[in-house]
Design a protein that fits this description.
By secondary structure, this protein is mostly helical. The protein has eight helices and no strands.
C-alpha cells in the first residue's frame, strides 16, 4: 500500500510537471519577435557578436566563480566564520539560483528579454553593493547578498540568449560559441 501511494505521488508530480511545461509553452512572450531581425553590416555584426560573447563569458564566469569565492570570503575575510556557517553561503547562493530560474520562467511570459537582462544586471549590482558594504560586518548580510546575487544572475544566460536571437541569427555553428562561457 505504501508503494502504491508513492507511485501515485510520482505520477501526480509527473502530470503536474507536464501541465506546467504546457502552460509555459502556451504563454511564451513573443512580443519581441513581431518585427524582422535587424540587418547589420559585416563589421557591425562582428562587433556586436564580440560584445555578446564577452558578456556571456563574463556572465558564465560570474556564475561559476562567485559561489566558491563567497565561501572563501566568509571563512578568510573579516567575518572569519566557522566552517559550517561558511558552508551556508553555498546553500543560500544555490537556493537563490533555483528560485531565480523558477521566477524567470514565469517572468519571461510577461517581460521582454531586454527588460529581464536589465533587471538582472541591476539586481546583481545592488547585491554587489550589499555585499561590499554590509557583508564584511554582518554575516546575515552575506547570506542575503549571495542569495540575491544567485537569484538575479540565474536569469542572465537565457534572457540574453533570447535577446541576441532577436538581433542576429544564432543557429548552426554560431550557436555553440554562446556556450563557451559556461
Amino acid at each position: 500500500m505504501r508503494f502504491a501511494l508513492c507511485s501515485l505521488k510520482q505520477n501526480e508530480v509527473l502530470r503536474c510537471s507536464e501541465i506546467y511545461v504546457f502552460m509555459v509553452m502556451q504563454n511564451t512572450n513573443t512580443k519581441h519577435k513581431d518585427s524582422e531581425t535587424m540587418k547589420l553590416t559585416y563589421w557591425r555584426k562582428r562587433l556586436f557578436l564580440a560584445l555578446v560573447i564577452q558578456f556571456f563569458a563574463f556572465s558564465g564566469a560570474l556564475v561559476r566563480v562567485f559561489q566558491s569565492m563567497s565561501t572563501t570570503f566568509s571563512m578568510c575575510g573579516p567575518l572569519q566564520l566557522e566552517t559550517h556557517k561558511a558552508a551556508l553561503t553555498d546553500t543560500f547562493y544555490s537556493s537563490g539560483m533555483c528560485l531565480g530560474r523558477l521566477a524567470s520562467t514565469f517572468l519571461s511570459t510577461v517581460l521582454l528579454p531586454s527588460k529581464l537582462v536589465i533587471i538582472s544586471m541591476f539586481g546583481a549590482l545592488l547585491s554587489s553593493c550589499l555585499l561590499m558594504f554590509l557583508a564584511p560586518v554582518y554575516y546575515i548580510s552575506l547570506y542575503i547578498g549571495v542569495a540575491f546575487m544567485g537569484f538575479f544572475v540565474s536569469w542572465q544566460f537565457a534572457a540574453a540568449f533570447s535577446w541576441t536571437s532577436h538581433h542576429i541569427n544564432i543557429t548552426g555553428k554560431l550557436s555553440s560559441i554562446f556556450f563557451i562561457g559556461l
